[in-house]
């Protein structure tokens, strides 16, 4: 997987700082960048299987929660995310 070399938005830097201030998660937090629905989005992995992963636009607005939750299918707001996301880049993963 290719790493993302673009500048991180301020809201994303703050989110990374929040994750690092917490105890290490298992599985670790990963942030990926994709093209989806005609825009660049950031996918933040869930801390556990029954919690939602989150997809944000470049301004930090929640777009949807594509997976996780009790059913594993997210909040239903972007059912096509897995099929239609493209141009995957690793932005950050917890190094601890």
From TrEMBL:
Cite a single Pfam family from the UniProt record: DUF6970
Quote the InterPro entries the UniProt record gives.
DUF6970
Q: What residues does the DUF6970 domain cover?
A: 18-94
What is the protein name given in its UniProt record? Answer: DUF6970 domain-containing protein
């Amino acid at each position: 997987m290719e790493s993302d070399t673009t500048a991180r938005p301020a809201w994303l830097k703050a989110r990374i700082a929040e994750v690092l201030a917490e105890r290490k998660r298992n599985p670790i937090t990963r942030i990926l960048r994709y093209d989806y629905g005609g825009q660049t989005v950031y996918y933040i992995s869930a801390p556990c299987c029954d919690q939602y992963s989150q997809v944000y636009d470049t301004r930090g607005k929640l777009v949807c929660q594509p997976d996780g939750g009790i059913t594993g299918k997210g909040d239903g707001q972007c059912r096509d995310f897995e099929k239609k996301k493209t141009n995957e880049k690793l932005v950050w993963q917890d190094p601890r």
